[in-house]
Each structure stands twice: as structure tokens, then as C-alpha cells.
Design goal:
Pfam families: AraC_N, HTH_18. The protein is of the alpha+beta class. Helix content is about 45%, strand content about 20%. Strand 6 and strand 7 form a beta hairpin. The radius of gyration is 20 Å and the shape is globular.
């Protein structure tokens, strides 16, 4: 297992004050546990009052900045720990398991999520000096060390939650700076690569989009490779480098997560959800569902309903 856990290092003194203010502002603006959309488009607040089991879900392109507590994201065999010292970047839509490690009612887990704006990334990349470092394909999820400049931009954005009259004008400026700091920070090249319309990262992203659109249909690698303008072998290699899974494994996770949503949110029976997402064999569906979520469909969904009641 590739564990990208952060070392226990104290934050610089100035950053400690910023993090304390940030935690207080987030806590004041969340109504309770869960994911909450703010009045600023693309800016979300997250709170959890207790640790959690690994929960598979689809992470969309975003920057996650923890202000209190600790969490880990699992992608295949890779583990990414993030806390107030490290931010997480997801550059493509990926099925990831998230697990909150450090949280309590007295000191809840608090996190900010900023959606990545591809148009803004493209605009900023045009203004940045060309990156002449050789291409180094890596995961479409990575950790960066939280810098004082990034934390300052995030704090200014959070302050606008209490100044709605100013947010309309100033929030886009803070969002722009956050994108800039991520692009110029550690491993920012992986985010830049998405702006190369004919580059391998963008081709893999197109393949991911196609799988997401047609996840319930039989997957034909040749059709996927054609849409990505790559050979089947090249797509397989690049896809696995970015997502830690094959296209077929990726599709399977999307199917199972959508089936779970249909049962949990829409109240659909397991057999109906099974066929809705493209499974022909209920026994295969149940087996693979249990492997991903830890229990058969009916039992796992009932457990989740009880936990959120």
C-alpha cells in the first residue's frame, strides 16, 4: 500500500492563528454535520462530529482544505492523509473512499471544498511561465503542503461568508488566487496538464467522462480508446496511472455507487437498482456490492438509513 501520510510537523506560528480563525468561521457557518453549499458558487463547507468508516463516493475536481481534524482518501492501494498542513487536489472525477480519522463533538472535523473551474485554470495557465519539466504521469489526486499564501487566500474567502454584500465582488478574486496558488504549488503540473487539449491527461479525462455518461452500458475498450484518440494499450496504461484502476474497474465502482444512491435516496429495491445500473446477474451484483461497501445491498442500506435517522 502506498501511504502518503503527512509527517507530524507544527504549523508556522502565523499559520496557527489563521487556522484558528478559519476553524471558527467555518464552525459558525455550518448548520450541522454534512456537506453544505455556501452562497459563493463552488465553495462548500464540511463538518463531521465523529470518525467514520471508509465511505466510497465520487470525488469531482476540487481542492479540499482541512481546517480542523484529519481525514484520509483511498484510491486503489494509495492512501492520502490530509489535515491542516496538507490540502488534497482531485483533478478528475474519481471513485474514492473517504474516511474521517479525527473528529469529536467538542472538536469536529471541519473542511473547505473549492470546486476546480476548468475555464479559470486554462486562463491562468496561459499567463504562467511555461513548465519545461518533463511529463511525469501520476495520479489525478495528490497532496500539497499548505502554504501561508494559500491559507491566506482561503481565509479571505471564508471571511466573505459573513460579508454577503462584498462577496459578489470579492469572492471571484479569492477563488482566482486559490486556483493560482494550487497551480503554482507542489505538483501543480498535474493540474496544468488538463489544459493541454491533446495531452494524455485530457484524453484520459475524456474517457472518464464517457464512462460516466454510459456506465450502465457494456464497456468496449476499443470504443473508449477511439473517443480518447489513443490506442487501447496506451489508454489502459495512462488510465491506470491516473486513477489506480482499469476502465472496467472504474465503471464497476460507478455502477455500484449509483445503485447505492438509488436504494438509499430513491428507496429502490436492490433487484431493480441492480438492473438499472447495468448488472444482469443479481448474485454478481450482491457479491461485488459487498466487496466494495462491506455488506450485502439490503443490509448496508438499512444500516446507513439507521445511522442518518
Amino acid at each position: 500500500m502506498n501511504d502518503n501520510a503527512s509527517n507530524v510537523i507544527a504549523a508556522p506560528h502565523g499559520m496557527e492563528a489563521q487556522q484558528a480563525e478559519l476553524a471558527a468561521r467555518v464552525a459558525r457557518n455550518v448548520p450541522g454535520d454534512g456537506l453544505h453549499e455556501t452562497a459563493v458558487r463552488g465553495f462548500w463547507l464540511i463538518q463531521a462530529s465523529e470518525p467514520s468508516l471508509p465511505l466510497p463516493t465520487v470525488y469531482h475536481p476540487s481542492v479540499c482544505v482541512v481546517v480542523q481534524g484529519r481525514k484520509r482518501a483511498l484510491l486503489g492501494e494509495d492512501v492520502f492523509h490530509y489535515d491542516p498542513l496538507n490540502y488534497l487536489v482531485v483533478s478528475m472525477s474519481l471513485p474514492i473512499s473517504g474516511q474521517i480519522l479525527d473528529a469529536s463533538p467538542e472538536r469536529p472535523y471541519l473542511c473547505l471544498r473549492i470546486d476546480i473551474d476548468p475555464a479559470l485554470v486554462s486562463e491562468l495557465v496561459q499567463r504562467l511561465p511555461a513548465d519545461k519539466s518533463p511529463a511525469n504521469p501520476g495520479r489525478a489526486v495528490y497532496l500539497g503542503r499548505t502554504s501561508p499564501s494559500l491559507l491566506d487566500a482561503v481565509l479571505r474567502l471564508a471571511r466573505l461568508l459573513d460579508m454577503p454584500d462584498e462577496a459578489e465582488v470579492l469572492a471571484p478574486l479569492a477563488m482566482r488566487e486559490i486556483h493560482y496558488r494550487v497551480l503554482t504549488g507542489e505538483l501543480g503540473q498535474r493540474l496544468r496538464e488538463l489544459c493541454d487539449a491533446d495531452g494524455p491527461a485530457q484524453r484520459v479525462a475524456r474517457a472518464i467522462d464517457l464512462i460516466r455518461q454510459r456506465y450502465a452500458e457494456p464497456l468496449r475498450i476499443e470504443q473508449l480508446a477511439s473517443a480518447a484518440h489513443m490506442s487501447a494499450s496506451s489508454l489502459h496504461e495512462r488510465f491506470k496511472a491516473a486513477t489506480a484502476m482499469t476502465p472496467l474497474q472504474f465503471q464497476k465502482q460507478l455502477r455500484l455507487q449509483e445503485a447505492r444512491r438509488l436504494m438509499l435516496v430513491d428507496g429502490m429495491e436492490a433487484a431493480t437498482a441492480c438492473h438499472r445500473v447495468g448488472y444482469e446477474s443479481p448474485s454478481q451484483f450482491s457479491r461485488e456490492y459487498r466487496r466494495l461497501f462491506g455488506a450485502p445491498p439490503r443490509r448496508e442500506v438499512m444500516s446507513m438509513r439507521g445511522a442518518t435517522a
